[in-house]
Design brief:
Keywords: Leucine-rich repeat, Repeat. This protein is mainly β. Helices cover 2% and strands 18% of the residues. About 5% of the residues have low confidence.
């Protein structure tokens, strides 16, 4: 392929018109850039199931519409995953959707244990992906400019390390009062600008730590 490999850290396949991840690529790259291509499908594992030491993976500006992270057991040190500007309508993190009011998820061992930043901006998500709590190191989640309509109490359940949530420019009309209740480490931003909220959120805001948190609510329907 036309990918460039510096032999140590960076695998650069950006704007090479590839439609799939090259099978012969180095698994020792720390940074891998596959942005601005024609990739429709990304499979975390291949037939060899070799571990990849990549820490920063960029799949932005491709043609991905569905993506499952449930098999990503070969990315043990991945810290940032950039999925911006695709056509993702389904992002699967667990294979079983919990029943309403349930506090349990299907346990998946070694599901991206080091992932800190998940970015899925400018896609076609209608809901927050179920199972974010399985990403035990997750600190930042960016989901602006999708079509998310509401925030349910289980959406950020068990996200004990989460510090930053960006939900700007969605179609959110409803946020459950307990949606952010147990996120004790939120300390950067909850961005809800440019949504369709019609009523203030006192119950939600009271449960947050005002001394460390910035909450953006401008350009809503109220």
């Amino acid at each position: 392929s036309e990918c460039q490999w510096d032999g140590e850290f960076l695998l650069n396949c950006s704007s090479t018109r590839i439609s799939a991840i090259p099978e012969d690529m180095s698994r020792t790259a720390i940074v891998a850039d596959f942005s601005y291509n024609n990739i429709k499908t990304f499979l975390c594992t291949d037939g060899r199931n070799e571990e990849w030491v990549v820490e920063h993976l960029n799949l932005s500006n491709n043609l991905i519409s569905e993506l499952s992270l449930t098999t990503c057991t070969n990315l043990p040190v991945l810290e940032t995953l950039n999925l911006n500007d695709n056509a993702i309508h389904t992002l699967t993190l667990d294979t079983s959707i919990p029943a309403p009011r349930s506090k349990t998820y299907r346990i998946v061992d070694h599901l991206l244990p080091a992932l800190k930043v998940l970015s899925v901006e400018r896609n076609n998500l209608n809901t927050v992906p179920r199972g974010l709590g399985l990403l035990q190191s997750l600190q930042t989640v960016h989901m602006s400019s999708n079509s998310i309509q509401q925030i349910d109490p289980q959406d950020f359940q068990n996200c004990s390390q989460l510090k930053d949530i960006d939900l700007q420019n969605n179609k959110i009309t409803k946020i459950h009062p307990d949606a952010f209740r147990d996120l004790n480490k939120l300390q950067v931003v909850v961005d809800l600008r440019e949504n369709a909220l019609t009523v203030p959120l006192p119950q939600i805001l009271i449960s947050l730590n005002f001394f460390q948190l910035e909450v953006y609510l401008s350009n809503n329907a109220w």
